Every structure is written in structure tokens, then in C-alpha cells.
Amino acid sequence: MRDGRSKLLMKKTSLTDLPQLSIPEGYSLRSFQPVDVTEWEYIIRISFAREIAFGDKIGFQPPFHPEKILFLCHQGLAVATAVAWEKEDGNRDCGYLHMVGVLPGHSGKGLGYTIALAALHRMREEGKQGAMLETDDFRLAAISIYRKLGFHPVFVEKDHSERWKLIFMDLLSEEG
């Protein structure tokens, strides 16, 4: 709730129809290693324009599973990340796409889409049927990616309908 408003929710009801995962040339996909804390925090700090401690957001949160934290790497350096999370109090059949970020020097290459799709594939491998995520109104590029992946808004609070209407207008003006 960075600007005082609640997070927006999006849901993908089925993971059976995922597109094939294709890693762009020059990049590789791997899971989290203990030495990755600094790289994860750097990607997230740049992507979200604020400090987020790995331990507070991921590492100290049950259930912590390193294989669910994914990275796209270029020349050995992590440049994008996403987490195939699971909310402890959530539906066990539904995964939670969490903390998707790409370094600006690598944006525009489809890496946000690729890393998010990799996380969805991981969820499906774990037996998840669908996925949820939370986002903010100003994350238009991320919302555009989520829509391409088949996520749809979930209206939880009274103001969500109007907020989504404004987001879709902004997305249309960016496309046109």
C-alpha cells in the first residue's frame, strides 16, 4: 500500500494453457542460490524504486523454497527475477506470482514476460491449477505483461472497478 491504496489483484484461473517457455538467446534460467540475496535485492530495488529486504519479503517467510525463486541471467549476472510463491493462508491449488522485476538495461526484450511465464510453469509443475498476483496501479508495463499471460482483474474493494477502468484507459493510450 505504497500510495495509501490497497493492492490490485489479478487471477489466472487455469495454468493448463501456458505458452511454451522460450528463453531469449544470450540468457539462461536458474533458481536461487544462497549468494543471490544481493542480486535479488538490487533487481527489486531498481524495478520497484524502493528498498525491499530479501529476508523480510521472501527469505524469512514460510514456506521458503529456493527453487521457486527464479532468475534470468545474462553473462552470469541475474537481470530478471520472479517468484512462484505460495501464500501460506491461500488456496493450495493456486500459486502466487510474486516480485517480478527486470533491470532497465534489459527491458524491452520480453524478459518480464519470460520470467513471469517461467514462474507460472514452475507452479504448474508443482500441481497448481491457477495463479494470483498483487500489483499497483502505476505498474502499467507489468499489468500489460500479466494480461498477455491471461491474468484478469479481481474486484475486491469498492474502488477497484474505477481504478481498473483508469488503468485500461492508460494502457490503451500507450498502445495507440
TrEMBL record:
<dbReference type="InterPro" id="IPR000182">
    <property type="entry name" value="GNAT_dom"/>
</dbReference>
<protein>
    <recommendedName>
        <fullName>N-acetyltransferase domain-containing protein</fullName>
    </recommendedName>
</protein>
<dbReference type="Pfam" id="PF00583">
    <property type="entry name" value="Acetyltransf_1"/>
</dbReference>
<feature type="domain" description="N-acetyltransferase">
    <location>
        <begin position="27"/>
        <end position="170"/>
    </location>
</feature>
<dbReference type="InterPro" id="IPR016181">
    <property type="entry name" value="Acyl_CoA_acyltransferase"/>
</dbReference>
